[in-house]
Structures are given as structure tokens and as C-alpha cells.
């Protein structure tokens, strides 16, 4: 039986329930972020080597049940870690050089910037490569969706850059923008894999060469 309302509390029972729900949701979001922050630290040290969610939970310092509750699967955790680390890397980018501020980046320059951000965060290049391998495996839906969507979005963005740069006379007009975008992504990811195996591979110089090959003849 419900007792009389407290005259000092003007909120209705529904309002109080909604308030508690909002408080629980906020706490859940904060807890998920706390776990994600710790997971980023762990993967920065260990790279993307695949292991069990239970083992990672132990490294992160939470229960297996808590990790499963917030991330569902190992692949979902890996994707969340990569997305968050990439977001932080983008936010930490320095302001563009004033001398080049009026010049749009070429697709290869965009990929060079992204690769440099990844290399600045220990373990992130390995983690990305792990996600790509998992996506190709066909048995990891979260990784497959992430990598497929990433490639699709990159192709659209880089093709737009190619079209704009063709109009500005900085890329050959006989180049198909979609194919050029796919080529730049393939070159960047392939060079990144080579760099993982041999740090002497100059990722940035190779992409700069690609820029010169796409440029119109002088």
C-alpha cells in the first residue's frame, strides 16, 4: 500500500523513478568509460595480441562479468579501445602549419597523418592489424562491421578529396577518384604492416611518392 506523499517532496513517484534511472544510467556510462580507460592502458602495453576476455578482465582489474556487461565480446572491446584511442589522437593533433593552412590535404597526406597518430600510441598499430585479420576471418562480426564501415567511409572521404584536388589541378584528371581512394588505403595499410615487421620501412616517404605519382605532369 502506498503511503501519503511527503509534502516536502513535490516530485511524483514517476519523477523519482525517472531520476533514479537517469542516475543509474550516468553511473553506468562513467563505469564503462573507466573500464575503457584502463583497457586502453593495457592494450597500449600489450598491443592487439588476441587472448580471452577473461584474461583481459584480470589485466584491467575488473570481473569477467563486468567486462562482458559493458562490451559483450572481445571484438567489441577491441573496437571500442581502438575507436577511443583514435578519437583521442585526433583531438591531440597540433594546429596545421600556417604556411599550408589554405592547402587541403591529399588523400595520401590524410593517411600519413592517421598513421602517425597510430604510431604515437603504443600498441594501436598492432591492435588495428588484429582487427583487420579478425574481420577477414569471417567469424568476428564486430570486427568485420568496424573494418568494413571504416574502409567504406574512408573511400568516400578520400574520393571526395581526389575530386576536389583534380578541380584545383593538384591531381591528374584521368585518375578515377574511387580507384585512387582504394589505392591510397591499400598502400597505407600495406605499408603499415611492413612497418610492423621492419621499422626501417619509411611509411611516410612511400606515401609521399604516391602523391607525386598522382600529381599532374609539370
From TrEMBL:
Q: Name one Pfam family in it.
A: TetR_N
* DNA-binding span(s): 52-71
UniProt keyword list:
DNA-binding, Repressor, Transcription, Transcription regulation
Where are the stretches annotated Disordered? 1-27
Q: Where is the composition biased (Low complexity)?
A: 1-15
Q: Return the Gene3D superfamilies for the record.
A: Tetracycline Repressor, domain 2
Which ranges of the sequence are coiled-coil? none
**Residue span, HTH tetR-type domain:** 29-89
Annotated PANTHER family = HTH-TYPE TRANSCRIPTIONAL REGULATOR PKSA (PTHR30055:SF226), HTH-TYPE TRANSCRIPTIONAL REGULATOR RUTR (PTHR30055)
**What is this protein identified as?**
TetR/AcrR family transcriptional regulator
Amino acid at each position: 500500500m502506498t503511503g501519503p506523499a511527503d509534502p516536502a517532496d513535490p516530485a511524483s513517484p514517476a519523477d523519482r523513478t525517472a531520476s533514479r534511472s537517469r542516475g543509474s544510467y550516468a553511473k553506468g556510462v562513467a563505469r564503462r568509460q573507466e573500464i575503457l580507460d584502463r583497457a586502453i592502458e593495457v592494450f597500449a602495453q600489450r598491443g592487439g595480441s588476441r587472448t580471452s576476455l577473461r584474461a583481459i578482465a584480470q589485466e584491467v582489474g575488473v570481473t569477467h562479468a563486468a567486462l562482458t556487461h559493458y562490451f559483450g565480446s572481445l571484438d567489441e572491446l577491441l573496437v571500442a579501445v581502438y575507436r577511443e584511442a583514435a578519437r583521442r589522437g585526433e583531438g591531440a593533433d597540433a594546429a596545421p602549419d600556417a604556411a599550408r593552412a589554405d592547402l587541403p590535404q591529399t588523400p595520401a597526406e590524410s593517411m600519413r597523418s592517421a598513421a602517425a597518430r597510430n604510431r604515437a600510441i603504443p600498441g594501436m598499430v598492432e591492435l588495428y592489424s588484429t582487427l583487420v585479420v579478425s574481420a577477414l576471418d569471417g567469424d568476428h562480426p564486430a570486427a568485420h562491421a568496424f573494418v568494413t564501415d571504416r574502409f567504406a567511409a574512408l573511400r568516400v572521404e578520400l574520393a571526395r578529396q581526389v575530386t576536389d584536388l583534380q578541380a584545383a589541378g593538384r591531381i591528374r584528371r584521368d585518375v578515377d577518384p574511387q580507384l585512387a581512394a582504394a589505392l591510397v588505403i591499400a598502400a597505407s595499410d600495406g605499408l603499415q604492416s611492413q612497418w610492423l615487421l621492419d621499422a626501417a620501412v619509411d611509411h611516410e616517404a612511400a606515401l609521399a611518392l604516391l602523391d607525386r605519382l598522382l600529381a599532374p605532369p609539370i
